[in-house]
Request: fold
Amino acid sequence: MKIGLFYFSGTGNTWWLCERFKEMAETKGAEVSLHAIDELMASNTASIADVWADNEVVGLAYPVHSSDAPPILYRFLEKVRMEVGDHPSGPKEAFVLTTMQSFSGDGALMLREGLESLGVELKVSKDFRMSANTGVPILTFNPSKDQVLEEQMVKNLEVLEEIVDHILAGRRMLKVQYGEFGRFHGWLQRVGPKWKDRTWRYFAAHPDRCTRCLICVEQCPVGAISVTDEGLVWDRSCTDCFRCYNFCPERAITVKGLAMGRRQRQHTYFRDRGFPPR
Ligand SMILES: Cc1cc2nc3c(=O)[nH]c(=O)nc-3n(C[C@H](O)[C@H](O)[C@H](O)COP(=O)(O)O)c2cc1C
Ligand code: SF4
Ligand code: SF4
Reply:
């Protein structure tokens, strides 16, 4: 079975899951190609439609953002739809893998319609609990400690094995965390006060802490940060992934004017282990 897994990962959790998926599925005889959506979207050479159509089964993987998929996933599917056109050929089946801190609601089903508009049926979906990647000043939680995350990753591998078997056997399994309750709360989280899609307005670089190293500018997966005479400026192409915030060596990126507190941690676990791959 030829599988194309298209993923977006802000801080590495989803990347880790996709790498493990590839290893596991390949030991079971599948051929798996991994595609970072941000790189695919930025590339002027590869035709997304060709890459998409060259698979029997496609997977989408993303971090859950407010019980939803990050904006870049919607932009990506729209681009595929435009390129593939009204008469899609290629894959007919899809699966979705998400990573989350703790609660996804029906976040793994958010792209179902988009897939259907491409003639692709969503057959398997699964949320994987990892670690929070936002320890923002206004909220009290921090990303999990490394040891907790590592224990979580071991548990995830067992679940992932089952999911891989389902996909390879062509079985249907759409999981919504906590059933109808989760679906309702997912909906509430999406219609309630939103900071999703607006975070770019809340980010700034602290004038005293920022050294202008430009790591955030280089690391941003969508090129949403520019350097101006007034300092760094975030724009609406931001996909809310918090990589800039977490990877800033000076902890200089503020959210709504608030800098990272002394008790706040950054989610740099995967940054220190080869993410993002170049
Ligand atoms: C803007 C934003 C919203 C998030 N919303 C949720 C959420 O609703 N539920 C949840 O469990 N985790 C949420 N998280 C945590 C991420 O889903 C989680 O840390 C994910 O594994 C990050 O994956 P990545 O490292 O591949 O970007 C959110 C993170 C961000 C940045
Ligand atoms: S990574 Fe941090 S210190 Fe470096 S330019 Fe960005 S905000 Fe400033
Ligand atoms: S500006 Fe920051 S949060 Fe937004 S997409 Fe870029 S790295 Fe992610």
The mean pLDDT is 91. The CA atoms of residues 53 and 90 lie 4 Å apart. The two ends are 27 Å apart (CA to CA). Residues 205, 210-216, 248, 250, 252-253 surround iron/sulfur cluster (ligand 2) (CB under 6 Å).
